[in-house]
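Each record in this resource describes a single protein on a pair of labelled lines. An example record follows, reproduced without changes.
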Amino acid sequence: MGLDLASVLSRLKSDLAYREAFDDVFDEPPSLLGLTQALGAYQRTLRSGGARYDSYNGGNTEALSGSEKRGLALFEGKAGCARCHHGFLFTSLEFENNGLYVAGEDSGRARITGLREDYGKFKVPSLRNVAQTAPYMHDGRLPTLSSVIEHYDQGGNPVFGKSNLIKPLNLNERERTDLEAFLHSLTDTITFAGVEMP
């Protein structure tokens, strides 16, 4: 969220509704422990596993369109997305530099570790429900999935520490369309945070 914890706690304490909510749940005013517990409880409500991709992966060959199937083949093959986005959550849970220009004050993992080699590295996000989570990248600089695909298709930018996994893809227009269609198939069709999704 781009704020230091002291600022977050200050904001929580200055808002009557949050103070009352913390008191109801934790019997105390907003605190760092309460904040982390509240965020953890919220994150545990986020569930996914009812996407059309899951149905396809479970054996229903009709669950994906032709375009989505071609996109899946690209995802796992030519585009190389599955090198970082794999498994049930579609993430390696690793930290990678994906070739974005980064501001000094937003230096990625290096901000935590102090290591030069961690400059510009951010945690690889899950792609579950990715069509529902615009804008994209760690700072929201890319507004659409097509702009994300374009970034990777161009091989990112020539920045210090860029992962050797990020290379020009040379996708044609149909391949970019198919890849985006596949990403939409990762949208959960049952519930997301307790809310029924389309």
